[in-house]
Amino acid sequence: MITARAAATFDPVGRSVATARAFVRDTLQGWGYSDVVDDAVVLTSELVTNAVVHAGTAADVLCLRTEDGVRVEVADHYPDREIPLQSSGPDFGSPDREGGRGLLLCAALASRWGVEYSPAHKHVWFQLDLPDRPVGIRSAGPLLPTALLPVTDERVRVAVVQIDRSGSITAWNDDADFLFGYAAEQVTGKQLTDIAAWPHTPGTSTGVADALLLSRWEGSYGIRGADGRVIPVYASHLRVRDTEGEPSTVCLLVRDDERAVLQTPARAPVSDFSAEHRTTDPFEVFIGSPAPDDLDGLLQRTVERARDMLDADSAFLLLATDDETELEVRATTGLPSARQRFARVPVEAGTGRYGSARMPAVHEDLTAVPGAVPLLSDTGMRSVVTVPLKVEGRLTGSLGVAAEAAGRYTNEEALRLQFAADRIALAVESARLGELERLRRGSLSFLVEASDLLAGTLDRDQTLALMAQMTVPTLATWCAVYTIADQSSDPYLSCVLHEDEERIDGLKALLSSIDPPDPVPAPGARIWPAPAAAGHRAALQVSTRTLGRDAPLSMGVAARTTLATAAAVGGETVVLPLVARNRVIGMLTLGKPSDDHFRQEILELAEDLSRRAALALDNARLYSERMAISQSLQRSLLPPGLPDVPNVEIEVIYRAAGEGNEVGGDFYDVFPIRDGAYGFAIGDVCGTGPEAAAVTGLARHALRLLAREGFGGPAVLERLNAAILDEGARSRFLTLPYGELWPQEDGSALLKVVCAGHPLPLRLRQDGSVEAAAEPQPLLGVIEDLELYEQEVTLDPGDVLLCVTDGVTERREGARMLGDDGLADVLSMCTGLTAGAVAGRILRAVERFAAEPASDDMAILAMRVPEPQHF
Fold first, then answer.
1. 168 three-class SS
2. 552 vs 186, 539, 564, CA distance in Å?
3. In whole angstroms, what is the distance from residue 694 CA to residue 686 CA?
4. Which burial class, exposed, middle or buried, applies to 283 when counting CB atoms under 10 A from its CB (0-12, 13-18, 19+)?
5. Which stretch, 284-293, 639-648, 655-664, 752-761, has highest mean pLDDT?
6. 545-589 pLDDT per residue, tens
7. pLDDT value of residue 776
8. Which residues are paired to 655 by β-bridges?
9. One Pfam family name from the record (predicted)?
10. Neighbours of 456 (CB within 10 A)
11. Is 762's pLDDT higher than 80?
């Protein structure tokens, strides 16, 4: 049953992808479907990209809410699509391709999905079901298929061995006889260490004799059989008291490949829990019902219950990293949690007898073994007991309780705490995996949007700003970006951002006062202590100066800013290198406020972002450099300026087609030849862009050189024609009117004009009549032998001579073209206007003729002989 719907249509432009993602995210969050938002956003992003980018059509997005999930449909409007044969299977595409991953992701993430075709539409839909989460139920992962379960020889054999307080074997069952070849009478009374080899669980340093003294042990080692072979076994033992009250240890041993029989076994209830609890879920007995449905809530409830159970002063819970080498502080009670949260300690820390986090450990007095439990340093705690959290034999965390008094805990308390840890280990691991999965999907969505934003600009300053805005506050409280211009340059502080804008200036001043981090190219995040140390020194100086005053009321604004900045940088600060094309081009610095730490998942996400940002920043740098070079070269092809010609007004308007182009295939020039004579030209090289601009440079400089050598108009163009043909394959044909301008004493101007294949120059008389000022002649760059001639034209006071390139006359709107006649009509309306006004009116007429931007270069040259002024 559909309970709600939302629909939107997105134009076929790249920015629509981000808009569609925002639409789906806002819709699903408004419906309260946050569990499936990230998956829906990722799938929608791919499907809308296929429509608006690859198919080039608008995309229709429809969201349908049902009682148990959400359905999203994406349709495109491709005009001619062949409908696939029914027998043909779906083409998922390759995950390495830029496009076509939509169906592949649907198959991986969606509960159900499908494709519906019509000749003009393609509908792709996917269904995301809400997770079924009954109260108190947790799952550590999918069920293992029966075919993958371990195979045993005959039936499972569980050897039961009991050892007294001295380590001597007191009981040996039939399965032990079968597995190891010893009869009970052969081993009874002997030390277990006589037949136990100890290639023990990797990472531990405890011998078998020490392990037997622990309250509980679970791990791998070997038993030397009667035939002398070492048999790998998995063992679990429990230390108890026998009927006479003496310490005794019961060991259960199975073949190592059958360890699942003993791992996380059901335990007998200890005396803390009465008979009425024996039919109750042990997890709920310890945690309470209802259990928290989020990881942080579950961990906090766990440490509080553990503290209360052993009447401790504090408790803590640490979760293991994926490689089981470090433990991350996730919940504490009775300790400075803000300082400890997300801090990391190595698994094998400590110098005490039970220093490994993989085994239960009891420390009667921490002052006797300094550093044995790094988390408790300088907290006033003296005695502590820690136990591992294990799921299927893998270390997932460590639970500990501590007291301010020494000697508070023994193995009995360790046993009770271990039983509690066994009850909650699976729930903690399930919640942790769920959190990691949500983080992973959220990270994927974050990186998709970040890549979109970074790819959308080639401006260096905007790229730097985007880098900072994407990290704050999503990944860090504050961010600073250092850039390195070249290998010989020092890092430069280019951008600083804090989630509180009032802190930015103080943070920038603090970072500017210390040396930047070293540009180390090694991947990954590294700790940078300098900002915290500088902030601490500054805060200490301020506190010293205000000592004895009525602080903080008497403290000035600068002092308060210093203290606030010191608090802002007082936490963990990390530096990630920005490496692009095998060169360090900068550093991304992320920081936390006082006593705060980064999560490893956040650092890994920041590392992914830094790689993308580095490439985007380097692309922006390369683009800026090439654009600066291009613009500099292009500007060198333009005339330096227009000369002041006596009694003649001259105005030029020039527009080059193409983004970033200052010079194209059109050019102009007005220059002095000798006293009283000026050359002018306006030309059009075949094509646009840099190739055409190269020929314009040749033509403009050749015209100046030849004219100043004394050649007349026809001779100048004939020699220019030969120079263009000498370019060979790089030559391009060229049209231009070239002429000489001679101002006369009577106020008129004499023109000598040669028009080589170009739109004819037009003469506007005072009466509004328009006529051609020259005759057409062959263009340049096509044939070798040209016979050109020049024509004389006299401009009387008030007359205008207009020269344009074909970008003006060939301006189109559908089938209509401005043409020579349209240009003449516009010019005829310019009587009495100055040269600048004439050129401006021609430009406006061209721009208004069509709605689309001009696609061709355009040049307009207007010369006018002003009328005499009468006073």
1. strand
2. 81, 13, 12
3. 11
4. buried
5. 752-761
6. 665 554 444 456 777 788 888 888 888 899 999 988 888 888 999
7. 92
8. 858
9. SpoIIE
10. 15
11. yes
